[in-house]
């Protein structure tokens, strides 16, 4: 909080696409500066049994639910 006033910013980004994450991070740095708290509210659930999922769905699930935390 700056001077007792809390500020909240929201951005929409496809965490499954690395370049989308990087470009949004640059936008945030330009518009906001350093970030004190980031809440990543993303996840993918297919509702299918693993052996019934197409490869693309498995890959998307792993990228969003696991890999995106490291970008």
How many runs of DSSP E, i.e. beta strands? 0
For the record, the count of structural domains works out to 1
Estimate percent helicity.
25-40%
Tell me the fraction of residues in β-strands, as a range: under 5%
What is the general shape?
elongated
How many DSSP H or I helices? 2
Protein name: Short-chain dehydrogenase
Organism: Cirrhinus mrigala
InterPro entries: NAD(P)-bd_dom_sf (IPR036291), SDR_fam (IPR002347)
Pfam family, one: adh_short
Q: What would your notes on this structure say?
A:
It comes from Cirrhinus mrigala (Mrigala). It holds the Pfam family adh_short. This is Short-chain dehydrogenase. The protein has 71 residues and is an all-alpha fold. It has one domain (18-70). 35% of the residues lie in helices and 0% in strands. The chain contains two helices and no strands. It has helices spanning 18-31, 55-65. The radius of gyration is 16 Å and the shape is elongated. The model has no long low-confidence stretch (mean pLDDT 87).
